[in-house]
Amino acid sequence: MSGHSKWSSIKHKKAATDKKRGQLFSKLSRAIMVAVREGGPNPADNVALQAAIAKARSFSMPKENVERAIERAAGAGDGAAYETVVYEGYGGGGAALIIEALTDNRNRTAANVRAAFNKAAGSLGQSGSVAYLFDRLGVIVIDAVTDEESLLLVAADAGADDVAGDDDVWQVTCAPAVLAQVRTALEEAAFAVEAAEIRMVPKSLVEVDIETARTLLRLVDALEEDDDVQEVYFNFEVPEELLSE
What CATH homologous superfamily does 83-132+204-236 map to? Predict the structure, then answer.
């Protein structure tokens, strides 16, 4: 498995103990509320809500927080009107980045994203300028796999498209529409699901040197610290040296 995939696992472990869990839960709640308002409060009929709930579970967001967000959105208790905005750009070494945000002020969010790119000597591009380098997929990260053959069989039977692993970290990919059923099947088979969400997965990875990678990861961190930014995707390989740190 690539350093990029391992980074996804490390990111979830870091978030579980991070001091900014309040900000993280606020972002997750916002995503759930937007999904409810756009597709209704029943996860069975709302794929976007299924994905938002799965992501919240991946970050150990309490069940009551999830239910509260659904109830607030269904009852229109929060007057803020959020919309989805996607930004695309390039960082050092030709690395491509996609930023997904939920905002009630497009000008504020655009200014913050642009400032982060400028500080990292990157540049924002037009819509579609880097999206073609990614596929939108359901991604499930599994920790401590001891029975690889069983994992492959369960994932395939549940509708997954691919399984890849290295050491103790494994990644199952599938179509977004079957993410919930694949996760359920894996959990019922006693696999330790660490994360499950719909992501923009790079079709190929760009190799960068260690210093460029550090600069790019600082850019990713700066973007993720913004309250409006929900997710940052990138296509550069995270060197093993940085993963070990």
Answer: YebC, transcriptional regulation domain (3.30.70.980)
pLDDT in tens, 199-215: 999 999 999 999 999 99
3-74 domain in CATH 1.10.10.200?
yes
Q: For residue 174, give the nearest of 134, 150, 140, 131 by alpha carbon.
A: 140
SS3 87: strand
User: Which among 97, 102, 91, 98 has a CA at the least distance from the CA of 32?
Assistant: 102
Six token digits for residue 124? 């924002």
d(C-alpha 120, C-alpha 181), whole Å:
40
Read off the pLDDT of residues 55-95 as tens digits, 9 standing for 90 and up.
888 888 899 999 998 988 887 555 567 888 999 999 999 99
- Using the CB atoms, write b or e for 9-25: b if 16+ within 10 Å: bbbbeebeeeeeeeebb
Choose among 228, 233, 163: nearest CA to 7: 233
Q: Which CATH class is domain 134-202?
A: alpha beta
Residues of the chain with CATH 3.30.70.980: 83-132+204-236, 134-202
